[in-house]
Amino acid sequence: MSQALVIVAHGSHLNPDSSAPTFRHADTIRATGAFDEVRTGFWKEEPSLREVLRTVEAEEVVVVPMFISEGYFTEQVIPRELRLDGWDVTDWDSDGLSADVATYAATDTGQTVHYCGPVGTHGSMTDVLVRRAESVTGDPDVGEGFGFAVVGHGTERNENSAKAIEYHADRVRDMDRFDEVEALYMDEEPEVDDLPDYFETEDVVLVPLFVADGFHTQEDIPEDVGLTDDYRTGYDVPAAVEGHRVWYAGAVGTEPLLADVVLERAADAGADVGSAVEDVRETTRVATPEADD
């Protein structure tokens, strides 16, 4: 039986960068040959969530949401737009972090849909956060002498958003790789504005737990942290902020390794992905810098 993967995301009418990571990750997965079909669908772009299953020929489809946390879109909007017959969020049996997969028939197309939890709460997303640190510093062994900050919205928008931030911060901390690890927020304490107060290390990698670069990651966070007074003038990487060197990595969702999380979600749903996970981990690996002469 043919296998199809559909990656669903928010998209934007205003920001063309919003959908770019989703397209890139779809291309990466398509190149592995793990699926007969790989499609993308969006809330704010074409093809729409309501139409995307009609672009798929396979009778069995794995759907992976390109979202950071469980919430309104993953629990209400996407199941409604895909017309999942009898959708009930309790079938995920989730505590706000543990949504895995639930299988339904799509009333519009008759396809069997294996609807997965969002990429942002999967355990392997922790590896992508660390990979962002490796990418922004150019050092595959970065850790010793560095602090690490994971940044998210906070509970005022979605309490599960904060759960995801804390979950991954705890997992990075448990690696015992970085000298200090903190979860910071835009909308609540501890605030990213006060980043220097939470670190003693001179070097700090700052990784926003967002799917795509947009208003918050390109404008708000750089100005709030003090990387620049005006985001339009740009900033250095690393940037000097109150005695620290801040290595700002931009949205975690732009890291090529995120394709691996999509694949792992699909595999958890029963898809046969073969060696695709290992292949993606290898092809997206950060190269070791050449030694100085």
Shape: globular
How much of the polypeptide forms β-strand, as a percent range? Answer: 15-25%
Q: Could you say what the CATH topology of the largest domain is called?
A: Rossmann fold
Q: Describe the strand arrangement of the main beta sheet, using strand numbers.
A: 2-1-3-5-4
* Uncertain runs: none
Roughly how much helix do the residues carry, as a percent range?
A: 25-40%
Domain count: 2
Number of strands: 10
Q: How far is it from the N-terminal to the C-terminal residue, by CA?
A: 55 Å
SSE class: alpha/beta
Mean pLDDT score = 94
H/E element order: EHEEHEEHEHEEHEEHH
How large, in whole angstroms, is the Cα Rg?
Answer: 19 Å
Main CATH class of the largest domain: Alpha Beta
Question: Biggest sheet, in brief?
Answer: 5 strands, mixed
Tell me the number of helical segments per DSSP (H or I, 4 or more residues long). Answer: 7
Going by CATH, the architecture of the largest domain would be: 3-Layer(aba) Sandwich
Describe the structure.
The protein has 7 helices and 10 strands. The protein is of the alpha/beta class and 293 residues long. The chain folds into 2 domains: 4-121 and 255-283, Rossmann fold; 125-253, Rossmann fold, CATH 3.40.50. The strands form 2 sheets. The chain has a 5-stranded mixed β-sheet, with helices on both faces. Helix 1 (20-32) crosses helix 6 (258-268) and helix 3 crosses helix 4 (159-174). The model has no long low-confidence stretch (mean pLDDT 94). GO terms for molecular function: lyase activity; metal ion binding. Pfam families: CbiX.
